[in-house]
Amino acid sequence: MNISTKLVIIGIAAYNSRDNIAGLLRALLKQKLTGAKIQKILVHCDCCTDDTFETAGSVKSPKITVIDGKERMGFAGVVKSLIPKMTSDIGIILNDDILIKDDRLVEKLIMPFDKEKGVGLVGGNPRPLPARTVIEKSINSSVEIFEKTYFSTKNIHNKFFCDGKILALSKKFMDALRFPDDSGLMGNVDSYLYFSCLAEKFNFRFVPGARVWFRQPSTIGDYIKLIARNHADYFIHSKTFGDIVARSYQRPGGYVFYRNFSREFLKNPLEVTLAVIFNCYGWLKARNYSRWLTPTWEVNVSSKVLN
């Protein structure tokens, strides 16, 4: 199907995001697309305890539908409920705690579906806002090492660049998706979608130019929760997808990785040291974490503060 005929439905999983949701919706309404069209924007308020539902409803557009969820479902549960509603050519899943500064973001994100057959899942490029704490700087240093390694080896269409903050799914992939009854078995939704994409013989593509902005966790507690949750994915998804998971977790680059690690350490020794310590602790904690991880895990509050 030609890009000029594509219809897009955007789904947003919103939880206590009254400070961000209106700006996000206005940015989406300002998107410019050549030929393609945003058909609907679905905002699922996941049993919010603040004014997210009212704030989202204050942005008036016939394209916007705000769903007032009365039962807490978590990100995985909301995604499971949104995807069947995405009857368009492309579905886009967005987090509620991102900033959009590019009025061509959606157009850039959906381009791979037009350029290449067999693409089922596309990831955008979330970029961290300037760090305000040593914890944010530590996370950024860790990400910098991996990003430089993958880009230097030209291996960018992989799990590391599949981030649930911004994902696009083809109609064929959405139709092929099968979700477990227990949403906890999905772990991090982006990983579940990535491994499902490969298992169903679709391709994943990463679009560096499709940038959105977000806040890294700024407290030790939120950082550890993030790492443990991400590492727990390995144990959760290995049971469902087998060897695909092990291959995706292999460290990239060999010498290139250690070279980039050394360079980053020389620039930011404290931040890199903290990243190593917390990542090791996260791995130790991950197996137990995976046993009781639920779809309504505690939200990282510090990452929702975008200003």
Q: Helices, strands, pairings?
A:
Layout (H helix, E strand, L loop, with lengths): L6 E8 L6 H9 L7 E10 L5 H6 L6 E6 L4 H9 L7 E6 L9 H11 L3 E10 L5 H19 L13 E5 H6 L12 H11 L3 E12 L5 H22 L1 H6 L6 H13 L1 H24 L15
Parallel strand pairs: 1-2, 1-4, 2-3, 5-7
Antiparallel strand pairs: 4-6, 5-6
Helix pairs in contact: 5-10, 5-11, 8-11, 10-11
Task: Write structural notes for this entry.
The protein has about 300 residues and is of the alpha/beta class. It has one domain (about 5-305): Alpha-Beta Complex (Spore Coat Polysaccharide Biosynthesis Protein SpsA, Chain A), CATH 3.90.550.10. The chain is about 45% helix and about 20% strand. The chain has eleven helices and seven strands. It has helices spanning about 20-30, 50-55, 75-80, 105-115, 135-150, 170-175, 190-200, 220-240, 245-250, 255-265, 270-290, and strands at about 5-15, 35-45, 65-70, 90-95, 120-130, 165-170, 205-215. The chain has a seven-stranded mixed beta sheet, sandwiched between helices. β2 (about 35-45), α2 (about 50-55) and β3 form a beta-alpha-beta unit. α5 packs across α11. The radius of gyration is 19 Å and the shape is globular. The chain starts with 6 loop residues before the first strand and ends in a 15-residue tail after the last helix. The model has no long low-confidence stretch (mean pLDDT about 85).
